[in-house]
Design brief:
The complex is a heterotrimer of chains A (258), B (642) and C (227).
Chain A lengths: L2 E7 L8 E7 L8 H14 L22 E2 L2 E2 L21 E5 L8 E3 L2 E2 L2 H10 L19 H11 L6 H5 L6 H13 L7 H14 L10 H5 L7 H27 L1
Parallel strand pairs in A: 1-5
Antiparallel strand pairs in A: 1-2, 3-4, 3-5, 6-7
Helix pairs in contact in A: 2-5, 2-6, 3-5, 5-6, 5-8, 6-8
Chain B lengths: L11 H11 L5 H4 L3 E5 L3 H13 L2 E5 L17 E2 L11 H11 L6 H21 L24 E2 L5 H19 L2 E4 L2 E9 L2 E9 L5 E5 L2 E4 L20 H8 L4 E2 L4 E7 L22 E5 L17 E2 L1 H5 L9 H13 L11 E4 L1 H7 L1 H19 L8 E10 L2 E2 L12 E3 L17 H21 L5 H4 L7 H20 L5 H15 L6 H21 L11 H25 L23 H4 L1 E6 L8 E6 L14
Parallel strand pairs in B: 1-2, 1-9, 2-5, 9-17
Antiparallel strand pairs in B: 3-4, 6-7, 7-8, 10-16, 10-18, 11-15, 12-13, 12-14, 14-15, 18-19
Chain C lengths: L11 H27 L5 H13 L1 H31 L15 H4 L1 H20 L20 H9 L2 H28 L8 H27 L5
Helix pairs in contact in C: 1-3, 1-7, 1-8, 5-7, 6-8, 7-8
The chains are: A alpha+beta (258), B alpha+beta (642), C mainly alpha (227).
The structure holds flavin-adenine dinucleotide, protoporphyrin IX containing FE, iron/sulfur cluster and FE2/S2 (inorganic) cluster.
Chain lengths: 258, 642, 227
């Protein structure tokens, strides 16, 4: 197969980027998209040019490292798959393919197609954990969790933190990621004691990072390689509202008592 | 130098408790004065950094990915073992201990394995409390499955994403400490050198992968939890970035490398397709519970469609050779058996490197729905990758490198022979002998990180003066400067070769040598050949590799080249170790040491030891140190799955 | 651990809730207003009587006006602030971007909103304040000397371009409402996977009903059904 690639090239966060075009030949349909880029890079290196930098690691759709907006779609045209799981058989011979990085102010470009997703880590730092000291846990079966709840928590926990939801959202909103993270823990009894603080702090951090607001386009859900449901966003909104109401109540009671 | 394992003595159930009591403690007020470096943020490193931060130490944690949550532990699918006996099926700490000692083919220390089985209980408690959404039964209690041929159901799992969920648990604990200020996280940083001052590990040199900056970080102790070196084979189930660099640098600075030839080749992976292929995908071995493995009896039938080969012309070779265990024989046995039939020319698929894993009978017996319920996502993944529908045609599978049991030598405290250098998780050699059991690597990583290192590192630190107080080592110390200089020089030389071949092309070539000669079957002749070809390839690498770009910016080719350079040295040591160990045990199969039926033959007389290699310089023969293994509780006997 | 209480409206989510609540109020008004308008088909007495009733109960009239004004101010100022944030969140645009889930209504909420705002201004000037009198209608009084709403409407909508403005504006309004109606449930966290699909279809139905309800009046006049 033959392709014409338009690839975003950018030296670093400070310089402006540009598209460069490459033609590539001899690709087979069972090659993965990233293996196609490997071939391109091999060729660029051979020609004495700098290869295209792109993020990837596990190449099996679980680490969440790979990114790439392929022909206008984060992770490319295949539903429920990451870029590393995308195969060239999804494209037609001779097609022109445009490859861009995730584009969001909160994901600055580091080089070419590589972006900095540290903002996601900071959202977790704000409250995406259960405070349990190592060794202080009760027996794992001491707190039963209804199967439906555990399954639903798992549905949310399946998020790989890739950022495709942000990339796909017309507002570059991180609501799907944050919702998945908040709901995973808030659904479980183990996460209940901190649920209010968790949701308030995580949302506050999400906003501070400069992600946009959700206007319910649902592009995130469609782009998510793990099929995280946008229903979690509604639940996040509810969690936040109740958390704020409850914390108001609590501070009122505290000042009344004090 | 005699290796001191520091294993406690006495009744095995009491050893860890006794040892823990004897370990020195660091005064709580002093903890924050100690700096600890943790390289790696997988289950082992992430758990260690989080726990040490929580205890009050000042921790610096490093990983090469953009977020600690992406360490390769994330890819583990199957599950994690623990001797909870929640199923009431007769499991116990002792049984897990026993199964492991036998399963690893008697090439691990009894004391270590027992401790692992003991703390497995705490791991599950800890993870459940962190919010790991383990699979549950309708009553709300934890579910278990039997895994890797175990006779009891002791494997805990979270769908097919157990590693991911456990890692997210450790990662969240880590991020909590980052927020608390006790851990500083350095993502996209690669460790390129260990700093040793006066014989003690005192820090590391790293390269910031974002902008190429070289940094020195000093500390009172250095913990390596950098994962396995399976990528020496080029094609493996490891992530693209998995490397040996951190442990290899430490090895070159004096840390012994133990049992490097012990590698695990997993029987159920999707076969290789073409020359461009960059990695192999593992299919959970649970598939062997319902799939039957076969190849045609006659090599002439190889290219026929599977449906056209009648029952009478099929060879269900695992069921034939191992009637008691059938398709559920351990990984090493299943892998080797697949190699044998492919070597006989009966392998299927492109290049004849594949065997069928057929669900026809179970679909008939249980119905397609049941099979879909059990393996739906795996079938989908297979379909995705191969474009073949496994409900209609049998899957094709072939073994692939999956795990490395070898690693840096450590004592019972997980400290290497270099004082102050600790090694955890897959990066050390400690608990899996010659063959790791399914669902035990996750257990070991978390055991090391959550429940062993927090005690043992304290014992070491209590005996040294904190760097923040003593100020005995600074960035201007001659040894520190030399370490930094060494890194800079090496990067510069890689960039300056300016030859004709890419780092990948060398990596592929090395991988092929190791796979052919130090893979599923090893022979003296093959290994000797490899020991000539690898140094030659290494020489060519240093004169003909091409690394474009500069060191002062993000440069993935430079990262790759540095890793390949280290693999080119490790590969040689693996072959040397394999040559030296003229017995077959676990994943290490020497053709010279087999029974008449072609089964592995262990030689406890001569080889019941850990081989710990001391580096003497590139192109110089390393020195072998032996740590004898003693078995007081589980009697030495040959494994048999007949 | 204590933390300073987070103020809901400082968060993007809180802002969305303001949009949803104010939108809901406006939505309610729109429905009521539409039902009121439809009385025109019952003849002049019905609609004029309705108008007089409103004007003779100032508490009701002004109460509604205050609430509506507050809602519209909150809705518009929050919309502007959100739109700004959302634009800033993606400083470099995609060269190629394919949307697969969203729709025209969702993508044009701000545009349809502005259209509605302009239309509201015009609409108030036209029929409430009577600024546009002479342009396309002569204000008339009924037998009791009160404003003859029926007559005002009929004479206005006989002018085709005036009807056109109303029809276009109603188109914008129904697009806005179609997305807004189900979106507000999500924003307020009142969604549930079990009835999300039903919500979406009801949103279409309600938006269509509003559209038909509103445009039926000017069109009926223009085509002489109502004289
Ligand atoms: C596909 C697959 C499936 C598996 N399934 C199972 C299973 O079901 N059950 C089971 O028990 N085991 C399983 N295993 C094995 C198990 O996952 C691993 O052995 C284990 O997770 C290793 O954990 P770790 O913490 O030691 O290393 P890793 O998780 O590999 O972490 C290594 C860390 O070190 C960092 N690092 C590496 N090199 C450097 C460097 N030079 N500088 C800086 N940082 C560096 C990395 O960034 C990373 O953070 C599986 C393995 C694979 C590959
Ligand atoms: C009668 C007038 C109006 C009604 C009934 C109305 C109704 C609504 C409703 C119900 C919502 C959904 C709230 C949510 O997102 O949860 C909404 C959203 C919105 N409205 Fe309005 N609105 C009106 C006027 C306006 C005006 C005048 C503007 C503009 C300037 C405007 C701009 C917006 C914007 C930008 C949104 C958010 C878009 C989104 O969530 O996708 N609206 N409106
Ligand atoms: S929600 Fe989906 S798209 Fe967003 S980060 Fe998680 S996995 Fe990626
Ligand atoms: S490379 Fe890991 S998800 Fe794609």
């Amino acid at each position: 197969m033959k392709f014409k690639l338009n690839v975003w090239r950018q030296d670093n966060a400070k310089t402006a980027g540009r598209f460069e075009s490459y033609s590539i030949d001899g690709i087979t349909s069972d090659q993965s998209f990233l293996e196609m880029l490997d071939v391109l890079n091999e060729k660029l290196v051979g020609d004495g040019k700098e290869p295209v930098a792109f993020d990837h690691d596990c190449r099996e759709g679980i680490c969440g490292m790979c990114s790439l907006v392929v022909n206008g779609r984060p992770h490319g045209p295949q539903e429920h798959a990451t870029t590393c799981q995308l195969h060239m058989r999804k494209f037609t011979d001779g097609e022109e393919i445009t490859i861009e990085p995730w584009r969001a102010g909160a994901f600055p470009v580091i080089r070419d197609l590589v972006v900095d997703r540290g903002s996601f880590d900071r959202i977790i730092q704000a409250g995406g954990y259960i405070s349990v000291r190592t060794g202080a846990a009760p027996d794992a079966n001491a707190i039963p969790v209804a199967k439906e709840i555990a399954d639903r928590a798992m549905d949310a926990a399946a998020c790989i933190g890739c950022g495709a939801c942000v990339a796909a959202c017309p507002n570059a909103s991180a609501m799907l990621f944050t919702a998945a993270k908040v709901r995973h823990l808030n659904l479980l009894p183990q996460g209940a004691p901190e649920r209010d603080l968790r949701v308030m702090k995580m949302v506050e951090q999400m906003d501070a990072e400069g992600f946009g607001a959700c206007t319910n386009h649902l592009e995130c859900e469609a782009a998510c390689p793990k099929g995280i449901s946008a229903d979690f966003i509604g639940e996040l909104n509810r969690d936040l509202a109740t958390a704020i109401l409850r914390s108001r109540e609590a501070s009122k009671n505290a000042s009344a008592g004090g | 130098m005699a290796l001191q394992s520091k294993c406690p003595t006495g009744p095995i159930e009491q050893r860890w408790d006794k040892h823990r009591f004897n370990l020195k403690l660091v005064n709580p007020a002093n903890k924050r004065k100690y700096e600890v470096i943790v390289v790696g943020s997988g289950l082992a490193g992430g758990a260690a950094a989080a726990t040490l931060g929580e205890l009050g130490y000042k921790v610096q944690c490093f990983c090469y990915q953009d977020s600690p949550r992406r360490a390769h532990s994330i890819a583990a699918q199957g599950g994690i073992n623990a001797a909870k006996n929640y199923q009431n099926d007769g499991d116990s700490v002792y049984r897990l201990f026993y199964d492991t000692v036998v399963g690893v083919d008697y090439r691990a220390r009894e004391s270590n394995v027992y401790r692992l089985a003991q703390v497995s209980l705490n791991i599950i408690d800890q993870c459940a409390a962190q919010g790991v959404p383990f699979a549950r039964e309708y009553g709300g209690l934890l579910d278990n499955r039997s895994f890797g041929g175990a006779q009891v159901s002791r494997t805990f799992y979270a769908r097919g994403q157990t590693g991911q969920q456990l890692l997210l648990g450790a990662y969240s604990a880590l991020e909590r400490q980052v927020a608390a200020g006790s851990v500083t996280m350095h993502s996209r940083h690669e460790m390129l050198e260990l700093i040793v001052v006066d014989g003690r590990a005192r820090g590391i040199v790293t390269r910031d992968l974002k902008d190429g900056r070289i940094e020195t970080h000093l500390a009172d102790a250095v913990i390596l939890a950098t994962g396995g070196y399976g990528n020496v084979f080029f094609l493996s189930t490891n992530a693209m970035g998995c490397n040996v660099t951190a442990t290899w640098r430490a090895h070159k600075k004096g840390a012994f490398f133990a049992n490097p030839c012990f590698t695990q080749i997993h029987p159920t992976c999707i076969p290789v397709k073409g020359d461009y292929q960059s990695k192999l995908t593992l299919m959970s071995e649970s598939l062997r519970n319902d799939g039957r493995v076969w190849v045609p009896k006659d090599a002439a039938d190889r290219d026929k469609k599977p449906g056209e080969i009648p029952e009478s012309a099929r060879d269900y070779y695992l069921e034939r050779r191992y009637p008691a265990f059938g398709n559920l024989v351990p990984r090493d046995v299943a892998s080797r058996a697949a190699k044998v039939v492919c070597d006989e020319g009966r392998g299927v698929g492109p290049g004849g490197l594949g065997v069928y894993l057929d669900f026809r009978d179970s679909i008939q017996r249980l119905g397609q729905d049941k099979i879909a319920e059990r393996y739906g996502n795996l079938f989908e993944m297979y379909h995705h990758i191969t474009d073949e529908d496994p409900y209609k045609v049998p899957m094709r599978i072939y073994p692939a490198v999956h795990y490395t049991m070898g690693g840096l030598w450590v004592d019972y405290n997980l400290m290497s022979n270099v004082p102050g250098l600790f090694v955890l998780g897959e990066a050390n050699f400690s608990d899996h002998g010659a063959n790791r059991l399914g669902a035990s690597a996750l257990m070991q990583g978390l055991a090391d990180g959550y429940f062993v290192i927090p005690y043992t590192v304290g014992d070491y630190l209590a005996s040294v003066k904190p760097i923040s107080v003593a100020k005995d080592v600074t960035k201007d110390h001659a040894d520190v400067k030399a370490a930094r200089k060494a890194v800079e020089t090496r990067l510069k030389s890689l960039l300056e070769v300016n030859g004709k071949r890419t780092a990948d092309s060398f990596h592929r070539e090395l991988g092929k040598i190791i796979w052919d000669e130090c893979g599923m079957a090893r022979s003296e002749k093959g290994l000797r050949g490899a020991l000539e070809r690898i140094p030659a390839l290494r020489e060519e690498f240093w004169s003909n590799v091409r690394v474009p770009g500069s060191g002062e910016a993000m440069n993935p080719e430079l990262e790759k080249a540095g890793r390949v350079a280290d693999f080119l040295e490790l590969g040689e040591l693996m072959c040397r170790d394999a040559l030296d160990r003229n017995e077959s045990c676990g994943g290490h199969f020497r053709e010279e040491s087999a029974t008449d039926e072609g089964e592995a033959k262990r030689d406890d007389e001569k080889y019941c030891y850990v081989a710990a290699w001391e580096h003497q310089g590139v192109d110089k023969a390393p020195t072998l140190h032996k740590e004898a293994l003693e078995f007081e509780y589980v009697k030495l006997s040959q494994r048999s799955y007949k | 651990m204590t933390t300073r209480a987070l103020s809901l409206t400082n968060t993007t989510i809180g802002k969305k809730m303001v949009m949803a609540v104010s939108g809901f109020v406006l939505f309610g008004f729109v429905i009521g207003h539409m039902l009121g308008n439809l009385q025109i088909f019952m003849g002049p007495d019905a609609i004029n009587g309705y108008s007089h009733m409103l004007h003779s109960t100032p508490a009701l009239l002004w109460g509604a006006r205050v609430v509506l004004l507050a809602a519209i101010v909150a809705h518009v100022t929050t919309a502007v602030s959100l739109v700004r944030m959302n634009r800033a969140a993606r400083p470099v645009a995609y060269a190629v971007k394919k949307d697969v889930a969203t729709d025209y209504a969702a993508k044009t909420m701000f545009l349809s909103g502005i259209t509605i705002a302009l239309y509201i201004a015009y609409h108030l000037a036209h029929l409430t304040l009577g600024f546009t009198k002479g342009l396309h209608y002569q204000p008339s009084l009924d037998a009791n000397g009160l404003p003859n709403v029926y007559q005002n409407v009929v004479s206005s909508f006989k002018v085709p371009w005036c009807t056109a403005i109303y029809v276009v504006a109603q188109g914008a309004l129904s697009l806005h409402l179609y997305h807004g109606a189900w979106s507000l449930f999500q924003s307020l966290g009142l969604n549930h996977s079990r009835y999300n699909d039903a919500l979406r279809s009801s949103a279409v139905a309600v938006a269509m009903a509003v559209c038909v309800g509103f445009v039926s009046v000017p069109l009926a006049v223009l085509f002489g059904v109502v004289k």
